[in-house]
Write a structure and sequence with these properties.
single chain; alpha+beta; 9-stranded mixed sheet
Length: 315
Amino acid sequence: MMSGHPIEEKQKRIIKKGYELLKREKYYKQVNVVNKIMFLKYPTSKAAFSKILSGKKAGSDSLWNNSKGIEQIVYKELGYQFDGVDFVENKQDWKEVIVPELGEKEDSKGLFFFEKGRLSIEEKAALYTSGRKVIYEFGIALRTYSNYFFSRNKSEIKTPVINLLKKGVTIKCFVLDPECNEARIYFNDRAKVRGFEEEAFRSEKIKESVRKFSVIQEEFSEADYIGKFEVYKYRHIPASYFMAIDPEEEYGTIIVSHYLYGQLRAHNPVMKVTRQANPSLYENYWNSLKHSMAGAKLVEPPSRANSINLGRSRR
């Protein structure tokens, strides 16, 4: 059988090896990589990318665009360069840069907007992979997030979370204390808007989320991972959703969504800001998150709470 053109064979190798590396280290799916390649201004499509990976004949333009794009992604995000045979580590003077996916709109200040609202589970999982020390999830009930662990395929969010915990990354979740006066005021005020009457009963949704998180905490605690999965209750009138990834580090990233009055929270626009691209705005959001988390109380996992109670009963 006649072998292909040497340059094209090299490009195919770059694409296949690069995707294997990104899939293993970042848990990216094909669609994530394709969107990143297109963000870098290399025209491609999921069909074209899939065709190359499956070994089917592809055009020279498609091979060039996909190989150039994936080569840049692997270096920017992982610090690996292709040596002609495989990707090898080259982190001299390297700093991690997460390549956005097409659909994130960047303005001149280095801000990325998700106009459609709440991040998809794929977008969240992709952002999680950059975590090295700690990830904060700050919301009202974090109901959608808690449901992910029970209603979605394990590979979508639970496995990426477990892999982070194994590496020593701690995940801290913050929900509004459903029993506090601030919660009552906030939900009753939201319920004044027509169509939002059920907001008055939102406290029950928070309790449901906490119960689900407790089950997850129990499972992760028994597995004794290096990193911890913690849940906290705060007592402030909520103003924004935050997801912060290593916020104290130079490479920190914060996702923020302001709660718009009279609008579904899932439809509120989402913005991503990094310390490197816009340090001044980043510090404003990081300071706001720190104030929002101040005074929050840790919710002990059931087994831990029971052991504390047993210990006290013996005194």
